[in-house]
Fold:
Amino acid sequence: SSLDWREPMTATRTLLTAALFGLLIAAAGNPVRAQLATPAKATVRLAADRTAYEPGSRAVVVARMTIEAGWHTNSNRPTFDYLIPTELELELPAGWKAASVSYPEGEMESFAFADQPLSVYAGEVELPATVSVPADARPGTVPIAARLSYQACDDRSCLPPTTAEARLDLVIGAGGEPTPIGREPARRGVAPRLGLILLLGLVGGLILNAMPCVLPVLSLKIFGLVKSASEGRAAVVAGSLATAAGILVSFWALAAAAVVARSAGAAVGWGVQFQEPLFVTFLAVVVLLFTLNLWGVFEVPLPGFAQRLSGPGAAEGVAGHFGSGLFATLMATPCSAPFLGTALGFALGQAAPTVFATFTAVGIGMALPYLAVAATPRSLSFLPRPGAWMDRLKVVMGFLLAGAAIWLLYVLAGQMPAERLAFLEGALLLLALFVWLRGSGGPVSRKLATAGALAALVAAFWIAGSARAQKLALAATEETRLIAWTTFDRNEAERLADEGRLVFVDVTADWCFTCKVNERLVLETEEIAGLFERHGVIAMKADWTNRSDAIARFLADHGRYGIPFYLLYRPGAEPHLFGELLTKDAVVEVVSNAAAARDATRLTSIDESGT
Structure:
């Protein structure tokens, strides 16, 4: 029908209706503008690394993001896929290639709305981008615009995603000079937490000396200090400092390996090198040779430079003490101590300087006893003087190291078939035999024994390197277990929790000594088995003896990079994370409270439904 302009009210209503529909259509086409404006909790500004750029060169443009105090944004690689990442997009002139943006690692932080640490940015964060200046770019200024997408959250809630924009004019021409940009961003709130993490690492490293993995090496150090004490104060100080240096160098090497592995996209964590049969075989060989040496089967002649380091009459020498520090760290890696998991879990999610700082703190903590001896060498005066008793002590310590060798073979049993392990053990036996023959024969037989020892050594490493890592069938030992463990399946565990079930997850490995202690003294007991049975707890075991990216991601999602790790899925609540040193009381309390909350929810549902 046609519009009757002779009726003003009709025309007015029609025009208002058309305008309203136009606004609704515009809102539907641009829903962000139709909503209320999101408060800006972050700003961005651009800076270039030079005052001018020649055609064909590369420009570094840094977007400096400043986040309001008390707020944070998700990092570019959030902890969970459903979280909104922080992303930078540069708008370049026509004909210019897209910029390559480098995003820094986020900080793992805990918040009231999440029971798991999240990877976030806070304070001031720098996002450098590399821009290629075309070879045919004309002299003058070129405008570049930046669009930063982010979602701001505080400790309680999150705002809707929003954007911040900035502009910069690049100067194309000769005579450009560097500008002071690209410095390490100063992130608010990191320093105080880093101080706490370093303290935890220091204490955790000190406690590491008392863990069973290190005790065989510690027994060697006691023997070495007794011998050093007979050489005087200078020998004690030099030996203690050399041991501490060996420990620190080892931790720096571990930190470097972790940074390199993470940059390559590999899983990182404390003790993951024990997932490699070659590494475990190497340690088994070293422990075997140390054992034979303590039993007097052979003596290790030091090379010329080591003899010069040792000095005349030195009992063990600086080189020997340094090597024992390296060895102590290697033997310590399969063990986890209180506070150590928290410190390393935080560090392995941070930038390289934080990783090195935390590993240094742990190394200093582990080296503290030796630093204390170096500071007060007279503290060794309580030790008996060297004598015939030391020969017997050497034999006893040899048995301690032999026990460590047995444990390493147990670890290998979970990484290769039984028949291949038998061949490996045979190669180690031949190595021991040829070493003994070399020490007891003449010049000709020593050469033949040396060749035989080298052949046995090559055979041992070949067997370990060519072995296909295999998990032992858990069903083979289920009849001896009090708890009916099932293989860990994350999706299944979360589904069961949604259905109202309690699911206890144990991430363990054959090379994790602390895991085995917790299993024997806490989990596989009548009390905990009865607790799980009464409350219908489903027990799942995640075996990390061999490499598993799924388990590594599961640990990282919960802010952990080492084991043991224990978690309880609870209906209607975030999972509960236990400490590394498990106790019966902690398990009973958490499981009982979770079961009570679940049962109360069920009763409430029944009352409301009236059935």
